[in-house]
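Design request, tokens follow.
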């Protein structure tokens, strides 16, 4: 590769965002060829880069062929690599990737489900998340309460939240009965809990379900079960890259579907108790069947 800025190389390799890489350089965590790096440093493919003293593999520094994974996030999972409370994370079920890392494109609340995208290209992830790209997100929202035309008008025009003004591009009625009603909404920001805060800024309105359906040009595959992932095709990846004017080599298509990894710590006590009772009943039936089928001699004793 031609010489590139160090923070861009680290971000593209999937270790962190460009902004985070700059912080790592400032904090003295990154060295190049045995010397502490400085902001603005440029590197070549033959340079030896270390993060916290650990060498970055040469394959990670090279421009990887772009892969993107679609994940249907269930409620209850957190969008972090490691959780101090030992809760399930969105990274638990993803496939292994060698000499690189999966970079999350956007985040979802613990109680929000739906579309999440992951890529091995940090620069692409940065472009898709950067506010200047104005990537539109679409959500299905179930709200509790009476939504009036005046409320919808205010939400489209804009309301003041704690971190600034916000608004929906569109609000489409998606049906429902009684006080629980579904709407499809879209906006071009990804601020923390923004969709929920927008709705709940209106008197008497509470969000009870929230599902992300679309991120930019990518729609959630409705046939993808919750907690499962799949590789996007090269055509789908190309469309996403074109939406942010990004060019890179795309990996060949993979057709293998992703299987959810269930860890023992996520099994509830109720589930474990039911499993234990079921095992006990199975063993009792097995013993009873064994005694019924055991052959007997003339004295009635089991052989």
């Amino acid at each position: 590769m031609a010489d590139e800025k160090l923070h861009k190389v680290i971000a593209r390799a999937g270790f962190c965002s460009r902004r985070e890489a700059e912080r790592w350089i400032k904090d003295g965590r990154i060295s190049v060829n045995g010397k502490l790096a400085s902001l603005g440093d440029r590197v070549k493919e033959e340079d030896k880069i270390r993060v916290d003293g650990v060498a970055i593999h040469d394959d990670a520094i090279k421009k990887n062929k772009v892969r993107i994974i679609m994940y249907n996030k269930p409620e209850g999972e957190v969008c972090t690599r490691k959780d101090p409370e030992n809760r399930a994370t969105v990274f638990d079920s993803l496939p292994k990737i060698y000499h690189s890392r999966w970079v999350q494109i956007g985040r979802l609340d613990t109680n929000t489900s739906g579309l999440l995208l992951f890529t091995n290209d940090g620069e692409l992830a940065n472009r898709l998340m950067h506010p200047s790209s104005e990537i539109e997100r679409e959500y299905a929202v179930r709200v509790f309460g009476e939504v009036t035309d005046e409320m919808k008008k205010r939400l489209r025009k804009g309301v003041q939240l704690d971190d600034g003004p916000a608004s929906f591009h569109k609000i489409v009625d998606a049906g429902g009965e009684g006080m629980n009603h579904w709407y499809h909404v879209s906006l071009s920001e990804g601020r923390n809990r923004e969709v929920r805060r927008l709705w709940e800024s209106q008197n008497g309105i509470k969000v009870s379900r929230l599902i992300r359906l679309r991120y930019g040009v990518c729609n959630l595959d409705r046939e993808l079960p919750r907690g499962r992932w799949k590789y996007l095709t090269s055509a789908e990846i190309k469309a996403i890259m074109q939406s942010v004017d990004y060019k890179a080599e795309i990996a060949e298509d993979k057709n293998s579907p992703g299987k959810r990894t269930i860890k023992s710590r996520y099994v509830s006590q109720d589930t474990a108790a039911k499993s234990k009772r079921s095992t006990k009943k199975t063993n009792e039936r097995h013993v009873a069947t064994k005694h019924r089928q055991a052959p007997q001699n003339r004295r009635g004793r089991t052989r």
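Comment from the thread starter after seeing the answer: thanks! The first strand starts at residue 4 and ends at 5.
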